[in-house]
Amino acid sequence: MKLCFNQATTLENSNLVKDLEYCEEHGYDFIEIRTMDKLPEYLQDHSIDDLANFFKSNHIKPLALNALVFFNNRDEAGLKETIAEFKNMLEVAGEIGAQYIVAVPLVTQEKILKTDIKDSCVEVLKELSDLAKPYGVKIALEFVGHPQCTVNTFGQAYDIVEAVGRGNVGLVLDAFHFHAMGSNLEDLKKADVSKIFIFHIDDTEDFPIGFLTDEDRVWPGLGAIDLESMLDILKDKGYSGPASVEIFRPEYYQLDAEEAIKTAKETTLEVISNYYNVEIASK
User: What is the CA radius of gyration of the chain?
Assistant: First the structure.
């Protein structure tokens, strides 16, 4: 299994230049680049060509651009903005060689029927799929384990991806989001593992379903998530994609960025090495 770093883990104590430097030094294979903040900050003093050249001359590679947010159930103007943003992301992904664009469903206080959510997601994802095909980029739908997210369980997200029926549209399986809204391990057991593009590994404090927020995340293996069962299922079903560590925790943002990146690697390896062989290209 390859090891990936999601930049949310150093959201407030680092930048893309430092994240790349430290992740390369500590042997990560991939990075998920945050397009909402860290990439725009990088582009103030650098170019996309600079970023592409970095990846060409180093071991670490770009796994995904994270993320196209709130893509479904938008009004006409909102949908146009979403499509325009996605087209820009495709250009960046093509330039730097990113394999995936993560798509996050709408979070809203408005009550929307599940059938309307599914219809919108399927329609938009098919349009995005058509746009992405010439670039060779895949779309990874990430359900969010929060009551106000329109797609908040693995089963709901998997049903949408199956309805889309495109080879370049799949899922992000985030352990925190899976746990946070009580997704069913039986749904994971029944899933076609080829539709799971990225596995986000993380852990959380033990709060009830529906009350968990991102800031409750902790290093893998230090919380209440049944990572063992999830990894056992993924291993048994032949998942061969990356494990991307993604933590949003205020206390961790107080750490030195290199310490956080090193700890993320160590805790992740301690959990996944019981199920997968992981070769780390440390310098």
Answer: 18
Residue 18 burial by Cβ neighbours in a 10 Å radius (0-12, 13-18, 19+): middle
List the one residue out of 60, 37, 14, 6 whose CA is nearest residue 172.
6
User: Counting every residue, how long is the chain?
Assistant: 283
- Residue 3: beta bridge partners? 243
| Digit-coded pLDDT (tens) for 234-280 | 999 999 999 999 999 999 999 999 999 999 999 999 999 999 988 76
Reduce the DSSP state of residue 98 to 3 states and report it: coil
Question: Residues near 88 by Cβ (< 8 Å), separated by ≥ 6?
Answer: none
Token pair for 239: 């998942």
Measure the CA–CA gap between 241 and 193, rounded to whole angstroms: 10
144-169 pLDDT, tens digit each: 999 999 999 999 999 999 999 999 99
- pTM for the predicted model, two decimal places: 0.97
d(Cα 10, Cα 261) in Å, to the nearest integer? 8
